[in-house]
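User: My instructor asked us to take a sequence, write out its structure as tokens, and then describe one feature of it. I'm not sure where to start. Here is the sequence I was given:
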Amino acid sequence: MTRAARASLVLAALLVAAAVMVRPGRSAGGLRFTDVAPRSRISYRSNNDFRGRKYFPQPMCGGVAIFDFDNDGRPDIFLTNGARLPELKKSDRSFYNCLLRNRGDGTFEDVSARAGLEGAQLDFSFGVAAGDYDNDGFVDLFICQAGRNALYHNNGDGTFSDVTGPAGLLGKPKDLLSVCAAWVDYDGDGRLDLVVSQYTYWSPAGDLRCTRGDAGEIYCSPKKYRSVPHTLYRNLGGGRFEDASVASGFAEVAGKGMGIAIADVNDDGRMDVFVANDTEPNFLFVNQGNGRFAEQAASWGIDYNDRGETVSGMGTDAKDYDNDGRPDVFYNNLQMQIWGLFQNDGGRRFSYASPSTGLLGLSRRFSGWSNGFIDYDNDGWKDIYSANGDVDYLPDNGEQRDSMLRNLDGRSFEDVSLQLGPDFVPKGFQRGSAFGDLDGDGFEDIVVTSLNRAPRILLNSGGNGNHWLRVETRGHASNRDGIGCKLKLTLGSGRVLYNHVTTSVGFLSSSDKRVHFGLGRETRIRALELRWPSGRLQTLSAVPIDRVFVVEEPQ
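Assistant: Let's start with the prediction itself. The structure tokens for your sequence are:
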């Protein structure tokens, strides 16, 4: 392509982005988000122990999981926390992790101590992954750490036990920073396996110190630290795991792992793994079906942005934003780098869609961390949420508000953040976030953390007249959670919507496993098709609307 032709394409993309930015805003439907956290006695504050000295991992604090730990039908909240530095210990309760039980009346009870999840014996906690790894019907937790990682088994009586040792997960190399994790049954044996994104080797003693002009000390560039391979643990059953990183091909490439997205990008019935890397090319591990993955980000066009540049990849999600039946990929990064939206082109490669959909202009001034596709207004189009805030505490645009980018019929996005109420847009250094319907009204709610602040529990007001369906999958031959199950919903008008079961969304975080569909004004569902990880196909016609619908895998 000639230089002139390339310049013409860039100019055209900028014009499209500008047109999207100035388009008269469609109403957000009167929806607002209200922070109900102040209604409860919540002592948790995400504490990265910033006291002037800047340690490299401090910006990555405050993971979130939304999951129903006690099976009462109400999603609960788990929050990870930091540690005292340089000791790297949770030296007092201000560093403890936190479990909030949903009372069902808009308030939450701190049951961390009773549940055994305070984590006093742990160090700096990063991401959390929720999943029922032993198929006993109770959701378990895996927590990523600066030191040893932790697997907590849900005992089914409101308590958890640290089973990291018996599970065979103590073999992590010393000083390896584990940032995010995701559950996926990659080999189709009905047991959830575990992907962990590793970042680098780091210790307080080896922490580098960097300065910049008048700004003084700053957080060092990730490029000053070495890249490392990510890890895949295979579930052997009986509560045991083995490191399958070498056998699976994960160990063949090194990066600086952040968010993890799970989706079947080529529609072959096997879940693939996308990892957003920080200042390194992204990875797309395509499942080969023989216990191995092939890293194919380059051939799929998703390793770099369209200028062939690496960016500071943060959180990521893989869902079908344009309703064509194929999962697309979104990741955010730092301000001026432009968030990446990649459209799945026929299950063969990805096309860079940030300029054509307006993200080029909408994201330029924001540093995003956690994120995800969320149909917040139940119109059947997946919108994009981003938890924002810069890496460092520098005054120029350091604290930032969050973004809600409304999906305009799968073609472009508009920023409706300022229409969603004052509780949605306070400025801060936001980090982790997760989605789920906390109050059971059929509209997605959001929990988000911000460095050294209380979490926000943002309830969606709903009430715009749009209908919904939430599907809870229960596997039998497949894993109990149904993670990896693909759903196709055909509405009465013939409109078709797609989604799949995963809890790995955004950065450091894990969302409700139940699959949410916004139906718009439609009042009838023609069919719900499920393709289970076991390969079983199931079609249901008597599907209600405006409720949680439990689907059991045929035996």
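For the description part of your assignment, you could build on this observation: The radius of gyration is 22 Å. Try explaining in your own words what that tells you about the chain.
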